[in-house]
Amino acid sequence: MRRGLTFLLLLALAGACSPRVDLPTGQSVPDLGWLFLNKGPYTLDTRVDAAPGLADFQLVTDLSLMAPEPEIVLSRQVTIAPDSTIHVRLGRLTPGFYQVRLRDSIRWNIGVRPDAVVSASDAQPDFDAFWTQTLAELDEVPLDPVFTEIPAYSNVQRTCYEVRYQSWNGAVSGGVLSVPVAEGKYPVCIQYMGYGAPVYYFDPSAEPERIDFLVSVRDQGIFKEGQDRWIDRGLADRDSFYYRGAFCDAKRAVDFAVSLDKADPNRIVSFGESQGGALTCVAAALDSRIRAIAPSVPFLGDYPDYGKIVWWPMHEVYEAADAQGLDREALMTMLSYFDVKNFAGRIHCPVYMAFGLQDPTCPPHTNFAIYNNLGTADRRYFCIPTCGHAMWQESSWDKERSSWLTSAQRSDRSIQ
């Protein structure tokens, strides 16, 4: 791969994958995807699951989807051809994401020049001071790790442990660790888990020359005991908000990895999906020992715009805040200390981000609010236009990410 900014569009067709396309033109490809990367004008040519004939067509801005009256930028009648294709001239569109509405029930998203989407940092003047103080408090807490071997996921190649150690404010963090049995120094891959995601254990034979660490932040992962909501915990104060501790746990995972006798501290990479993607970004922002990251559909980006696009999670947060009598403006100020886009400028390692154009949970705008504020120029993204939130189910991305991260862990410290 080329160093620097690289755009990769993976097009999915009927469950199979076509060859990668580097720089598609302004005209979409039938059946495949709806991501436009040039400056237009744009034409949408695609097959739809609808009966032939006249149909109402609208194009709506994603930032108005939760508004009482969504912003319609294009409205006309189109003809669905006998082969179920439509041909619509879209003209020139502002960079961003749009929802296509065809007839009463057909909906899908298209994207226009996502690298040019603007969602500026709204970090408070004392953002850095707040996190410097928080990390200083974390540094005062000894790790004191406790290892419990898990024989069912251990063999002659790697040993598996459940690990617990101390983190900020006295909470316990940890996760699942798989370490090569043979002596030596090994690269480390830190994996951050999604919001409430189930724990899994590594195949001890799968990566015998690597240390894998699946991180459980406080009250999640191996510590989860029936909980299913964390995002609205401690909303009244930045000092008590759940993600202050969880973000410290993400950083503490790096401290733990470096402490391992068999870890090569110069070859630490990380990845994660959804909340795991957010934690991946925050960990890299708070700890420069991570040399490359591959976040997928990152969560917790751009709180102000999040609630304009989809209902969850922001409207759940609003409802909880209203029930506590919290002022909305003060709430948003508090959340700005935990907005991943405000951490992005502090990330200077190479980044490879994946997103699904049809994501209804972490919509693409919020992903690119993070991506476009990154402090590194060595960034690239990978898109499956037909995918929603479940990028972890896409084997093509798993293969691509694995290859890229392995390259990042080479001892010459270069990524090709």
Report on the architecture of this protein.
There is one protein chain. Helix 2 (242-259) crosses helix 3. The protein is built from nine helices and 19 strands. The model is unreliable at 1-32 and 411-416 (pLDDT under 50). It has helices at residues 127-139, 242-259, 275-286, 303-309, 314-323, 328-336, 340-344, 364-371, 395-408, and strands at residues 6-9, 12-13, 16-17, 35-36, 42-47, 53-61, 72-80, 85-91, 96-102, 106-112, 146-149, 158-166, 172-180, 186-192, 211-216, 263-273, 292-296, 351-356, 379-384. Helix 8 links the parallel strand 18 (351-356) and strand 19 (379-384). Helices cover 23% and strands 28% of the residues. The strands form four sheets. A ten-stranded mixed beta sheet has the order 1-19-18-17-16-14-15-13-12-11, with helices on both faces. A five-stranded mixed beta sheet has the order 4-10-9-6-7, with no helix packed on it. The protein is α/β, with parallel strands linked by helices. It folds into two domains: 39-112, Sandwich (Immunoglobulin-like); 127-408, Rossmann fold (3-Layer(aba) Sandwich).
Count of helical regions = 9
Q: Which consecutive residue ranges, at least 5 long each, have pLDDT under 50? A: 1-32, 411-416
Quaternary status: single chain
**Number of strand elements:** 19
Strand-and-helix sequence, N→C? EEEEEEEEEEHEEEEEHEHEHHHHEHEH
Share of helix among residues? 10-25%
Beta-strand content:
25-35%
